[in-house]
Amino acid sequence: MRNIKLMDKKQTILIRYTMLILALLVNAIIFNLLIVPTKIVTGGVNGIALIINYLTNVDNSIIILFTSIFLLILSFIFLGVERTSGSIVATFVYPLFVKLTSLFTANIIIDTSDVILIAIFIGVIGGFANGIMYKTGFSNGGLPIISQIIYEKFKIPIGKSSFIINGFIVLLGGFYFGLTMVMYALIILFINSFVLDRVILGVSKNKAFYIVTTETNLVRKYIIEQLHHSATVFDVKGGFKGKRREVILTVIPSREYFRTTEGIKEIDPNVFFLVCDAYQVHGGE
User: Fold this and answer.
1) Domain stops at, among 143, 178, 201
2) Alpha helices in the chain (DSSP H)
3) Residue 91 sits in the same domain as residue 62
4) Are residues 119 and 84 in the same domain?
5) Cα separation of 169 and 175, whole Å?
6) pLDDT score recorded for residue 4
7) How many separate domains does the chain show?
8) Could you give the strand order of the β-sheet that contains 206-212, starting from the edge strand earlier in sequence?
9) Does one domain contain both 155 and 211?
10) What is this structure's pTM?
11) Distance CA 158, CA 54 (A)
12) What is the pLDDT of residues 33-67, one digit of tens each?
């Protein structure tokens, strides 16, 4: 039994590393094939490489490698070994892939006249690759390390500092490559973020309802007897008046959303409910 568990663990680790390597390879191909020719700076280490390459003509892979190593050292110093270990592979493998893929992508001719189509493609494929990478539990390192250090030292939210840092790089790219490229970069970042979330969380097939009503029993019966779904009733205390109320929690398939809301409102026109996406539902009766 112990040998079987060890074998399963090794297979899991192998799968994770394989997914990580494939994601890094896809990112490297997209960088050389589409981002370098169009000079769309979307922030991060890639954006820094594009700008420095434009100013100094130093190879992009060299810039990415030394920038990533510098950030990795900072991570070791300020965040510790455990939080840094997940970034080690990407720090060295990604620049290597950038160099290797540049050797054959240079011979592939892509029509870059339709930049909006290229921006959409970069956003979709890049978001998918990053989502796969994050699902492995590893990290691509890079500038998010700076945001994590800032949070540790100054308690500034990672999202805010990351937005400021990448925003500065995008604007700097706009200074050198034109403000139009900033607009394309924003399109890429939006699509990338959307696709990444879909890959990590999946597509929501269910909706979670939190229902506050004076007709608790009738609504509960409607959910159980008419919709044939379970419901949980729990007590809450209002924050304004301190009154005790009951809240019904139920999870409904998205296709039954309209039927559920209309049925609840018919029972209690003054009902209050909150609906959220439920990406994963497990257990229950």
Assistant:
1) 201
2) 2-30, 36-38, 44-56, 60-78, 81-84, 88-105, 115-135, 144-154, 158-177, 179-201, 216-221, 257-267
3) yes
4) yes
5) 10
6) 47
7) 2
8) 232-237, 244-253, 206-212, 272-278
9) no
10) 0.76
11) 29
12) 999 999 999 999 999 999 999 999 999 999 999 99
